[in-house]
Write a structure and sequence with these properties.
301 residues; alpha/beta; Rossmann fold; globular; acyltransferase; Class_I_gatase-like; MetA_family; homoserine O-acetyltransferase activity
Length: 301
């Protein structure tokens, strides 16, 4: 089934070339079904790339999904045009009286800051509080996951001695949980971050379940009521994303090692191979099916 996005959105052309079923509003309103309404708070600087990453995964399910994008009112984005934001994004003030079946809060390259020092932290707190009564289930990614663990459960992040950067193996701790249904016992996933959270704090928290961890630390964490899903890595990344980040850092003069377990023979001149794609699609389809579609009310009113 399709994802429903604005007809003029640049991501549409990319997704259609990949044969992903995309529908515009004109066609969607003729269908007598109840689509899922998903809100994406996009905190990443290169917003159009993140749009494609997430829409690709949301579009690979048997459910019709209406997708809306949210940006922060208290932060000025420097890597995307104002016209793009004006045309395709909305703000919290515009959606605060609405209900959404699911929401995604992305990562952001601001790990070096304490949460309270982030210039939009107060607005983000307001949004996370709002999700408690207005959203059925929220998926938080990377820094977004750390922000959720801190705000909702009082678990703070800590700085790593060096960046976790590359493709790392993970294990499933409880495969009876529906979010990881169909996952292999061991599976790879991308990570790109300078901070982490303590595994023992997650295990000790009565409201949380640690579903997966590995060499990169805790990876998939869920609240026991399914309201919040925290993913500390980037299963949504494309094959080339880590290389783009690596080249970007080199151009900035940052001393950084190549992503681990990413390039064949650990040679940055070779083309990387995607080893995590199937689990990316499984994660998003399981979330949409079990945590959103099967839990959300047909009529929020």
């Amino acid at each position: 089934m399709p994802i429903n996005i604005p007809k003029e959105m640049p991501a549409r052309e990319i997704l259609e070339k990949e044969k992903i079923f995309v529908m515009d509003e004109e066609r969607a309103i003729t269908q007598d079904i109840r689509p899922l309404n998903i809100l994406i708070l996009n905190l990443m600087p290169e917003k159009q790339k993140t749009e494609v990453h997430l829409l690709r995964l949301l579009g690979n399910t048997p459910l019709q999904v209406n997708v809306s994008f949210l940006h922060m009112e208290t932060h000025e984005s420097k890597n995307v045009s104002k016209s793009h934001l004006d045309q395709f994004y909305t703000t919290y003030s515009d959606v605060k009286d609405k209900y959404f079946d699911g929401m995604i809060i992305t990562g952001a390259p601001i790990e070096h800051l304490q949460f309270e020092d982030v210039n939009y932290w107060e607005e983000l707190k307001k949004i996370m509080e709002w999700t408690k009564t207005r959203v059925t289930s929220v998926m938080h990614i990377c820094w977004g996951a750390q922000a959720a663990l801190f705000y909702h459960y009082g678990i703070d992040k800590f700085k790593l001695s060096e960046k976790v950067f590359g493709i790392f193996p993970h294990q499933i701790s409880d495969r009876t949980i529906k979010l990881v249904r169909g996952f292999d016992d061991h599976f790879p996933a991308p990570h790109s971050r300078y901070t982490s959270v303590h595994e023992d704090e997650i295990l000790a928290h009565p409201e949380l379940t640690l579903l997966s961890s590995g060499d990169a630390g805790p990876f998939i964490i869920t609240s026991k009521d399914g309201k919040n899903i925290m993913i500390t890595g980037h299963l949504e990344y494309e094959t080339t994303t880590l290389n783009e980040e690596y080249q970007r850092d080199l151009e900035k003069g940052i001393t950084i090692a190549p992503p681990e377990n990413y390039f064949p023979n650990d040679d940055p001149s070779e083309k990387p191979v995607n080893s995590w794609r199937s689990h990316s699609h499984l994660l998003f389809s399981n979330w949409l099916n079990y945590y959103v579609y099967q839990q959300t009310p047909f009529d929020w009113k």
